């Protein structure tokens, strides 16, 4: 069994009708080394607007979708890449290639993962860059951070001051700010190649009482 602990000081299924964001014409019309066929995998909720007042579907660095929640309900989420206080940085060439929901696995007993795990792939302008992200959630989603398993097998909160992130409210939404370095320990391929693949993070509630507990088994995927 793997020992999964929580560091309190460092702190699959899409649901609903989704619409593909319209890509530019040509195989790589944006000339950003991201094939347009890949960009088409990024989905947006029609008419969804976050932070800057621009429709999410019109921004390559923003993706929004409806996901399943515990209790057979659904909720919207929005991911912003190259984020500055929840808005895309001016002149950004960052793209979100894909955004997916997966069932949570290997979380310690007692952890609550109301929307499972969010997996995403995004480009960065320069290989090796540390990319800043913001994840917007429904305010009724009861979480206390954006948690990921580090290389030492410890669950840490990327949306905490210790990791350069934060959890804040914006309007009627909760916003989780966090950073992932291209080629760093939270980039799935571990290679500084201009693409961040993040597969192990979850907006979750981790009670301090679970510190030091062992995850007995992966939770059942039922309900997602």
UniProtKB/TrEMBL annotation:
Segments of skewed composition (Basic and acidic residues): 28-42
Region (Disordered): 1-54
Protein name, UniProt field: Uncharacterized protein
């Amino acid at each position: 069994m793997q020992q999964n602990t929580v560091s309190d000081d460092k702190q699959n299924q899409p649901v609903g009708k989704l619409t593909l964001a319209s890509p530019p014409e040509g195989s790589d019309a944006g000339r950003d080394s991201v094939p347009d066929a890949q960009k088409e995998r990024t989905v947006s909720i029609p008419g969804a607007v976050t932070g800057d007042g621009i429709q999410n579907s019109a921004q390559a660095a923003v993706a929004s979708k409806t996901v399943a929640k515990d209790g057979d309900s659904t909720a919207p989420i929005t991911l912003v890449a190259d984020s500055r206080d929840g808005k895309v940085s001016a002149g950004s060439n960052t793209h979100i290639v894909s955004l997916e929901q997966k069932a949570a696995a290997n979380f310690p007993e007692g952890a609550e993962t109301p929307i499972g795990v969010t997996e995403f792939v995004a480009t960065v302008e320069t290989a090796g860059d540390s990319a800043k992200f913001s994840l917007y959630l429904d305010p009724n989603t009861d979480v206390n951070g954006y948690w990921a398993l580090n290389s030492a097998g410890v669950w840490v909160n990327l949306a905490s001051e210790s990791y350069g992130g934060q959890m804040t409210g914006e309007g009627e939404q909760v916003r989780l700010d966090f950073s992932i370095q291209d080629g760093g320990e939270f980039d799935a391929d571990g290679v500084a190649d201009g693409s961040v693949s993040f597969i192990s993070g979850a907006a979750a509630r981790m009670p301090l009482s679970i510190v030091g507990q062992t995850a007995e088994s992966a939770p059942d995927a039922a309900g997602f």
